[in-house]
Amino acid sequence: MTDQNANGCSCSGKAKKACTVNRRQFLFASGATTFAVMVAMPTRHGQAEQVPALVSTYPRKLIGKLSELEQDVPVEFYYPDEGDYSDSILVRTGVESGGGIGPQKDVVAFNLTCTHQGGSMYDSYKPEHKVLGPCPLHLSTYDVTRHGILVSGQAYQSLPQVLLELDGDDIYAVGMFGLIYGRYDNLIA
Length: 189
Ligand code: FES
Description:
Distance between the termini: 40 Å
Shape: globular
Strand content: 35-45%
CATH class of the largest domain: Mainly Beta
Helix content: under 10%
Structural class: mainly beta
Bound molecules: FE2/S2 (inorganic) cluster
Number of strands: 14
Mean pLDDT: 84
């Protein structure tokens, strides 16, 4: 049996189809950062029970135009808000990159706060190696072609990647992959 709630969410009565809110519904939640959905939770008796849940959503923010991006020239922006540690860059690397968008899948974006102890990675992009770093504090360096994975230094977590969408020529930030340094929730500064 399928129910439709006020958010347009389709939920089945079976736990394995817990909730089918699609990505668009998450992204276009009228600017709200949370909304309620019904999800199916398994009970002790192997049945499913519909329970309410709050879902946090990222803002969909226009951050640039594909036609205006020059290879290896980063463009700065703030995401997901303008609070602490939200400095980020958008860059066209010129090589296919993990999570990249555009015809060459080479446009990526990253938060600029080092995951080790919060050093600023501002102005540290190295086009010759496609990395951000070294961090001025303890030299951590991150590969922007491989989802911001650490390639050297003291950190042990990848640099958070900003998820992107391309709509015509417009580039939108739509989410984050990884926790921003200094936050316990990316959406609460
Ligand atoms: S704060 Fe960046 S390596 Fe320590």
